[in-house]
Design a protein that fits this description.
The chain is α+β, with helices and mostly antiparallel strands. Helices cover about 35% and strands about 20% of the residues. It folds into 3 domains: about 200 residues, no CATH class; about 200 residues, Oxidoreductase, molybdopterin-binding domain (Sulfite Oxidase, Chain A, domain 2), CATH 3.90.420; about 110 residues, Immunoglobulin-like. A hairpin with a 5-residue loop joins strand 1 and strand 2. Helix 2 runs antiparallel to helix 7. It binds the ligand Nc1nc2c(c(=O)[nH]1)N[C@H]1C(S)=C(S)[C@@H](COP(=O)(O)O)O[C@H]1N2 and molybdenum atom. Ligand MTE binds next to loops. The site of ligand MTE has 18 residues, from loops.
Length: about 550
């Protein structure tokens, strides 16, 4: 008689690699299914996404600033941190899965607990989102269910295979290699099945979220109305020195700098969009996209700038924005005395606080913008509706994917970046940038043309000067002025003796105040200091 019980007495354990594989695949199934269900129900509720979002919300602001300053090759500024964050969350999950796998060689219980705990983290992340809705709980629950189910199936079958392998090898010791192979083949086949399913579900969820038709038919109507808008007029000849290395006066939509906290673009069709103007007002307004289209549309060139822009940086661009004047809307609603802040909220819960008195200035020209350079707003730049306020940094004024306008006070409500240590008031500072030559270039000794940009939105630029090696300031030639809300290009003809040189520039705004030499970092209200390049003349 062969004793078949003997092997069963030693606790059965999966090989470490197999146990890890089983748990990693169960995690992948959870993430994939969560993403797919979120794609159907509510894109922002993908648990993976929600956890990453929550990390951004909860992270101390210096960390967020550090993240924003990262650069990854091939990614535009302000994107590297998002990708880094998603990869970081992925790496942490992988680590947890590997550890849980190692702990789950004999029983699936540790991995089950890990999935339950992570599922709860996902639920908490979704629940704590500023735009939480009950339906958002579906995706994390589905993810947890898919993870637990896959874990149970994969683990049970792997154990069963292992058991068969063990008992067969006990019965027929000569068959060890064969039965082992049979067990592994089964594990591999099921693993591939779950893996492919997980990836398929994840990709499906991504496509569902990304492929949604956002313009909802309004695109065509808007383009037609854009033509009817009171036009900004053609950009005058001589408005830029692009031939000398400055940007073109208008920035193409595809090249426009992009800064936001959105890990995933909020998607709303124009047909579904509507917004309340409420809070400290005499009468609440509710505006649909069609309501906005019925109002007079104006087109206005505006240079947007980000407060995070370093001296010499490129977080600045110009577009012809088309939209509805904001001031008449506020007057219609009737701003109550004391309401010193307009708190704008985006569809993803981001907020900006704009001083009401600035918005009510008769000539400020703040817009609820629907279009940009003759097209409906691109999704990355705020479709269907965003705010544009000439002269203020974006974080206090340029809310994209606008969802709500509330008249309130700065005391009662603190917007997103104010809570993270940035300034309450943030008018754009007078600045200049040297675009050509580039720092580090070697140039021929003798005559040299230097060119760049200058900006002092809503005051206007009245002059730019350059100096070499700390010498006397020499006036630059300015481009044709388009308006005081946009940048202005400049060029200066210098003569450089052979050797290394430092070149600096400074702009003066139309009130006669030159940009300051004092060096300041972007936090809390914008960088200052002279831009400087080093070149060697030969
Ligand atoms: N919803 C939303 N709107 C936002 C932001 C954001 O993070 N979320 N960032 C603001 C900041 S800091 C800037 S500088 C501008 C940039 O606008 P752009 O990406 O269209 O250039 O958008 C503003 N509007
Ligand atoms: Mo910004």
């Amino acid at each position: 008689m062969t004793d078949t019980r003997a092997p069963a007495e030693a606790p059965l354990r999966l090989p470490a690699g197999q146990a890890i594989g089983v748990v990693v695949l169960a995690f992948a199934a959870a993430i994939g299914v969560g993403h797919l269900v979120a794609g159907v129900v509510s894109p922002l509720s993908s648990p993976f996404q929600a956890v990453a979002d929550a990390v951004v919300r909860l992270a101390p602001s210096p960390l967020v600033e550090f993240g924003k300053s990262l650069a990854l090759p091939g990614l535009p500024a302000g994107r590297a941190d998002k990708v880094g964050l998603l990869v970081g969350v992925g790496v942490v999950l992988l680590g947890v899965a590997v550890a849980a796998g190692l702990a789950s060689r004999a029983s699936a219980r540790p991995a089950r607990w890990a999935l339950v705990v992570l599922g709860l983290v996902g639920l908490a992340a979704v629940f704590s989102s500023p735009v939480f809705a009950l339906a958002d709980l579906v995706a994390p629950l589905a993810a947890m269910g898919a993870g637990l189910w896959s874990l149970r199936w994969l683990h049970e079958r792997a154990m069963a295979d292992a058991l068969t392998g063990v008992s067969e090898s006990a019965t027929h010791p000569d068959k060890i290699p064969d039965s082992r192979a049979v067990g592994t083949a089964g594990v591999t086949r099921r693993g591939v099945l779950v893996g492919v399913g997980a990836v398929g579900a994840g990709v499906g969820g991504y496509l569902l979220g990304a492929g949604a038709d956002v313009s909802g038919g309004a695109g065509g109507e808007l383009v037609a109305r854009l033509r009817g808008a009171s036009r900004a007029g053609a950009v005058p000849v001589g408005a830029d020195f692009a031939g000398l290395g400055t940007p073109t006066f208008l920035t193409a939509n595809a090249d426009f700098y992009r800064i936001d906290t959105a890990l995933r673009l909020p998607v709303t069709s124009a047909a579904d969009w509507s917004m309340r103007v409420h809070g400290m007002v005499e009468r609440e307004l509710v505006l649909s996209y069609a309501d906005l289209l019925r109002r007079p549309l104006v087109e206005r060139p505006v240079t947007l700038a980000c407060v995070s822009n370093e001296v010499g940086g490129d977080l600045i661009s110009t577009a012809n924005f088309v939209g509805v004047e904001l001031r008449p809307l506020l007057l219609e609603a009737g701003v109550r005395p004391g309401a010193d802040q307009l708190l704008s909220t985006s569809q993803d819960g981001w907020t900006a606080g704009t001083p009401t008195d600035v918005l009510l200035e008769p000539d400020r020209g703040a817009l609820l913008a629907l279009g940009m350079n003759g097209e409906p707003l691109p999704l990355e730049h705020g479709f269907p509706v965003r705010m544009v306020v000439p002269g203020l940094y974006g974080y206090v004024s340029a809310t994209k994917w606008l969802a709500d306008l509330e008249l309130t006070t700065f005391e009662d409500a603190q917007a997103y970046w104010l809570r993270r240590g940035w300034a309450k008031l943030a008018p754009i500072k007078t600045q200049s940038r040297i675009d050509r030559p580039r720092s580090g270039d070697s140039v021929p000794a003798g005559p040299l043309t230097v060119a760049g940009i200058a900006w002092a939105q809503h005051r206007g630029v009245s002059g730019v000067e350059v100096r070499v090696d700390g010498g006397p300031w020499q006036p630059a030639v300015l481009s044709t002025e388009v308006g005081r809300d946009t940048w202005r290009m400049w060029r200066a003809d210098l003569t450089l003796p052979p050797g290394p040189h430092r070149i600096q520039s400074r702009a003066t705004d139309a009130t006669g105040v030159p940009q300051t030499e004092a060096i300041a970092s972007p936090v809390p209200d914008g960088a200052t200091g002279y831009p400087e390049i080093s070149v060697s003349a030969r």
